[in-house]
């Protein structure tokens, strides 16, 4: 399985497995089945319970088309809305354990998902052949929407241990120190922990110091260095995040 090295804001490379073309196609099929089910159920309800057919008979062609578009509108915005709400996933991607991420190490924004959504019109042209060719020939299995938005789709099926994830073992009687950590996302915490573990292995104090300052700046915290070292601070932040989000459960 090919990998992608994502360069984080702390200039540290983290390797992720790229989602295969097959995984992405299966996720697409699952999402397609969900959309088809929505359309079938919706039309059944409108035509059988609300007698939509009778209403449409009295309208011109353009009005009929407008009603059809309104009814099926959720299908069109399905990937944009769900990827935005589910941090780079749709139900299909979640089942296949794949996710959209920025290749620069930051959390993908609504703007990135919007670009992917707009380019989906091109990627799905000719029965999806354009998007398929793009994924096959591109280095990171990227369709045109991924290339334009600077994103890639990674696999979350990595066989890794707890030290390589945002998970952290904490005691049942653990008392958190910084409730501000809830402002961070899973992606933020993964970057923090990955960078911190890499820095610890080579005793890179500069990276640890920069990482600590970055966290303090984001969370607007002032820590007395005499009472708490930078390493102690980062360790507590990781544990607090797991405590508040229940990631150890």
From TrEMBL:
Transmembrane segments: 25-47, 67-86
Entry's localization field: Membrane
Keyword annotations from UniProtKB, A to Z: Membrane, Transmembrane, Transmembrane helix
Pfam assignment, any one: RDD
Topological category with respect to the lipid bilayer: Multi-pass membrane protein
Annotated InterPro entries: RDD (IPR010432)
Coiled-coil ranges (or none): none
Residues annotated as domain RDD: 19-150
Coarse class of the protein's main subcellular location: membrane
Name used for this protein in its record: RDD family protein
């Amino acid at each position: 399985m090919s990998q992608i090295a994502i360069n984080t804001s702390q200039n540290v490379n983290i390797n992720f497995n790229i989602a295969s073309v097959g995984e992405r196609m299966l996720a697409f099929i699952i999402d397609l089945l969900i959309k088809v089910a929505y359309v079938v159920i919706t039309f059944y309800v409108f035509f059988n319970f609300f007698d939509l057919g009778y209403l449409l008979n009295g309208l011109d062609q353009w009005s009929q088309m407008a009603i059809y578009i309104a009814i099926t509108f959720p299908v069109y915005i399905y990937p944009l809305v769900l990827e935005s709400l589910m941090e780079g996933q749709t139900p299909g991607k979640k089942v296949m354990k794949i996710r959209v991420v920025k290749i620069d190490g930051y959390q993908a924004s609504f703007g990135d998902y919007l670009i992917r959504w707009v380019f989906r019109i091109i990627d799905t042209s000719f029965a999806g052949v354009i998007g398929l060719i793009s994924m096959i020939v591109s280095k990171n299995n990227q369709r045109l929407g991924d290339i334009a938005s600077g994103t890639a789709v990674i696999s979350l099926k990595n066989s890794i241990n707890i030290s390589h994830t945002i998970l952290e073992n904490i005691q049942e009687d653990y008392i958190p120190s910084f409730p501000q950590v809830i402002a961070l996302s899973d992606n933020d915490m993964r970057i923090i922990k990955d960078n911190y573990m890499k820095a610890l292995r080579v005793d890179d104090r500069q990276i640890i110091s920069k990482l600590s300052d970055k966290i303090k700046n984001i969370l607007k915290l002032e820590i007395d260095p005499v009472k708490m070292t930078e390493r102690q601070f980062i360790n507590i932040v990781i544990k607090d995040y797991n405590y508040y989000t229940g990631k150890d459960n």
